[in-house]
User: Fold this.
Amino acid sequence: MRQDGKAIEEALKGKVSPVYLFVGERPITTPVCERLLDVLLPGKERSTNLDTIIPEEGTEGTILESLRTVSFFPGRKVVWVQDGEFLLTPDRKGVTPSSSRKSDGHEGDYGTLLGKWLERGNHARRCVLLIQTATIDAGSRLFKTISTRGKVIDLRIPKGSRKASEASARQRIREWFRERGKEIGSDAIQCIMERVNYNDPLALMSEVEKLSCIKEGKITRSHVQGLVRRSREEELFELTGALNKRNIQEALSCLGLLLEQNIPPLVILGVLRNYIKRLIALKAAMGPNISATSFGLFQSRQLPAIKNYFRKTQGNPLKGVHPYGLFRMTAAAERADLNRLLGLVADMPDYDLKLKGGVLAPRLLLERLVMDLLKILKGNLE
Assistant:
């Protein structure tokens, strides 16, 4: 049984933990949180005993205050933290955390006081803490405390061998259909895997939602072939997504897939050129404040600053990029040296000429460009 199903089943039997940590992209973790809330706060209790802390309000002091405040209504209270990255990820080197994210009188790692609150005993009868986060630092004190005192439900596709990742994705697809009262054949699942990046749970869930609308009984391969189509934009987006994660294996895999599907090398070169230009524009707009500890903080503080910067200049190379895409790019751009990025842009005419002249195989040229770019994004000196 999957981690989330086991946690909900235990809660139904009355075995409730004082804290639940959900790890993964928010569209994936939110439905699971909702299902657990239905168990923890049945009926009308949810409207009276749930305190939801949104990203803009998420400080350790706010969370502790809510946990310590006794509910005016009978029954268990649940505190739902929708953006807990700042509690479970280390501060980036050279970046001072925003004072709005600090708890009163608290110095040191975020999560220290919450960890102490959890260590005092089992609070589950009176209050339960739910935390959603896209990333974690497994070495943080709070994560270790939650692992010991509560439940960690990791809904990410596990990284490791390709075989293990594919097996996890197949299981997840099957369970998502089962949750929606649908049955799907193994050949149909394989067809989904061939058309959608199985390392992207959001893309997988989107296709599951689409196929679940079919009124017929079992989902077949022909259904998938008719409804799930890979567009050029989606394939190219996967390449830039791998670059944002600074994952060389995934980036080269995406590049190979694009070439195998006959995407013109010059088109791929254009995408890489635009991506580099956007990184440069992002660094110029954000300056030394390029780091963003959470999407909520980025959306409320840094995104308005970026828009304001480009109001004063001619043209906006970041126009049309989704805010969440920009947030992901900040992590990629953080360590990159601006001069080296500008050097790559200066080299683009040379790459263009070599691709058109057939001097070297397109795959070799593009792989070299991708690896050079990733060295810069990782902050490597050579």
Notes: The longest strand covers residues 127-133. Residues 265-286 form the longest helix (22 residues). Confidence is low (pLDDT under 50) at residues 91-109.
